[in-house]
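Example 3.2
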Amino acid sequence: MGFILYTVTFLLLITATALYLTRNRWIHSIPVPDYVYDRLPSSFSNDIESGFSSNDFDLTSNVDAGDSRQGLDQRAKREVQQLMKSKNVGFDEARRIYTEQRFAKNNIGADGRPRDPKFVSFS
Protein backbone atom coordinates (compact mmCIF):
# COMPACT_ATOMS: atom_id res chain seq x y z
CA MET A 1 0.00 0.00 0.00
CA GLY A 2 2.82 2.41 0.88
CA PHE A 3 4.50 1.70 -2.48
CA ILE A 4 1.38 2.79 -4.40
CA LEU A 5 1.04 5.94 -2.29
CA TYR A 6 4.66 6.94 -2.88
CA THR A 7 4.39 6.15 -6.61
CA VAL A 8 1.24 8.26 -7.04
CA THR A 9 2.79 11.09 -5.04
CA PHE A 10 5.98 10.96 -7.12
CA LEU A 11 4.05 10.93 -10.42
CA LEU A 12 1.90 13.81 -9.24
CA LEU A 13 5.01 15.80 -8.33
CA ILE A 14 6.61 15.08 -11.73
CA THR A 15 3.39 16.06 -13.56
CA ALA A 16 3.00 19.28 -11.56
CA THR A 17 6.63 20.21 -12.26
CA ALA A 18 6.24 19.52 -15.99
CA LEU A 19 3.07 21.60 -16.14
CA TYR A 20 4.72 24.46 -14.27
CA LEU A 21 7.77 24.47 -16.55
CA THR A 22 5.66 24.38 -19.74
CA ARG A 23 2.94 26.80 -18.58
CA ASN A 24 3.80 29.35 -21.29
CA ARG A 25 2.73 26.84 -23.92
CA TRP A 26 -0.69 25.96 -22.52
CA ILE A 27 -1.77 28.77 -20.16
CA HIS A 28 -3.37 30.81 -22.98
CA SER A 29 -5.82 28.01 -23.76
CA ILE A 30 -7.42 28.13 -20.31
CA PRO A 31 -10.51 30.34 -20.47
CA VAL A 32 -10.55 33.12 -17.93
CA PRO A 33 -14.04 34.40 -17.11
CA ASP A 34 -14.71 38.08 -17.72
CA TYR A 35 -16.21 38.51 -14.29
CA VAL A 36 -12.81 38.34 -12.60
CA TYR A 37 -12.66 41.71 -10.92
CA ASP A 38 -9.76 44.10 -11.46
CA ARG A 39 -10.28 47.43 -9.78
CA LEU A 40 -9.58 50.18 -12.28
CA PRO A 41 -8.09 53.48 -11.16
CA SER A 42 -10.46 56.42 -10.80
CA SER A 43 -8.15 59.44 -11.14
CA PHE A 44 -5.42 60.60 -13.47
CA SER A 45 -2.69 59.98 -10.91
CA ASN A 46 -3.96 56.42 -10.39
CA ASP A 47 -4.12 55.98 -14.19
CA ILE A 48 -0.44 56.93 -14.42
CA GLU A 49 0.47 54.48 -11.64
CA SER A 50 -1.47 51.71 -13.40
CA GLY A 51 0.43 52.15 -16.64
CA PHE A 52 -2.20 54.04 -18.63
CA SER A 53 0.25 56.76 -19.64
CA SER A 54 3.25 57.00 -21.96
CA ASN A 55 5.41 59.58 -23.71
CA ASP A 56 2.85 59.81 -26.53
CA PHE A 57 -0.15 59.89 -24.16
CA ASP A 58 1.05 61.92 -21.22
CA LEU A 59 -1.31 62.39 -18.27
CA THR A 60 1.15 64.20 -15.99
CA SER A 61 -0.01 67.58 -17.31
CA ASN A 62 -3.53 66.72 -16.12
CA VAL A 63 -2.22 65.89 -12.66
CA ASP A 64 0.04 68.97 -12.54
CA ALA A 65 -2.87 71.21 -13.54
CA GLY A 66 -4.98 69.83 -10.69
CA ASP A 67 -7.58 68.30 -13.00
CA SER A 68 -10.49 67.15 -10.83
CA ARG A 69 -12.08 64.82 -13.40
CA GLN A 70 -12.41 61.11 -12.67
CA GLY A 71 -9.65 60.06 -15.07
CA LEU A 72 -9.92 58.09 -18.27
CA ASP A 73 -13.11 56.34 -19.44
CA GLN A 74 -13.69 53.19 -17.35
CA ARG A 75 -14.95 51.00 -20.23
CA ALA A 76 -12.09 51.99 -22.50
CA LYS A 77 -9.54 51.43 -19.73
CA ARG A 78 -10.94 47.96 -19.11
CA GLU A 79 -10.70 47.04 -22.80
CA VAL A 80 -7.19 48.49 -23.15
CA GLN A 81 -6.10 46.63 -20.02
CA GLN A 82 -7.49 43.36 -21.43
CA LEU A 83 -5.59 43.98 -24.68
CA MET A 84 -2.39 44.69 -22.75
CA LYS A 85 -2.74 41.41 -20.83
CA SER A 86 -3.97 39.15 -23.62
CA LYS A 87 -1.65 40.34 -26.39
CA ASN A 88 1.25 41.18 -24.06
CA VAL A 89 1.72 44.66 -25.54
CA GLY A 90 2.41 48.06 -24.05
CA PHE A 91 -0.06 50.86 -23.46
CA ASP A 92 0.51 52.68 -26.78
CA GLU A 93 0.09 49.53 -28.87
CA ALA A 94 -3.01 48.44 -26.92
CA ARG A 95 -4.49 51.93 -27.35
CA ARG A 96 -3.81 51.75 -31.12
CA ILE A 97 -5.47 48.31 -31.39
CA TYR A 98 -8.44 49.53 -29.34
CA THR A 99 -8.86 52.60 -31.57
CA GLU A 100 -8.68 50.51 -34.76
CA GLN A 101 -11.29 48.12 -33.36
CA ARG A 102 -13.57 51.04 -32.52
CA PHE A 103 -13.06 52.45 -36.03
CA ALA A 104 -13.93 49.09 -37.61
CA LYS A 105 -17.02 48.75 -35.40
CA ASN A 106 -18.23 52.19 -36.53
CA ASN A 107 -17.47 51.56 -40.22
CA ILE A 108 -14.47 53.88 -40.34
CA GLY A 109 -11.32 52.98 -42.25
CA ALA A 110 -7.87 52.72 -40.67
CA ASP A 111 -6.99 56.08 -42.21
CA GLY A 112 -9.89 57.74 -40.34
CA ARG A 113 -12.20 58.22 -43.32
CA PRO A 114 -15.73 56.76 -43.26
CA ARG A 115 -16.38 53.69 -45.42
CA ASP A 116 -19.88 54.88 -46.23
CA PRO A 117 -20.38 54.75 -50.01
CA LYS A 118 -22.50 57.93 -49.80
CA PHE A 119 -19.70 59.85 -48.09
CA VAL A 120 -18.54 62.92 -50.02
CA SER A 121 -15.35 64.71 -49.06
CA PHE A 122 -14.23 68.12 -50.29
CA SER A 123 -10.53 68.30 -49.66
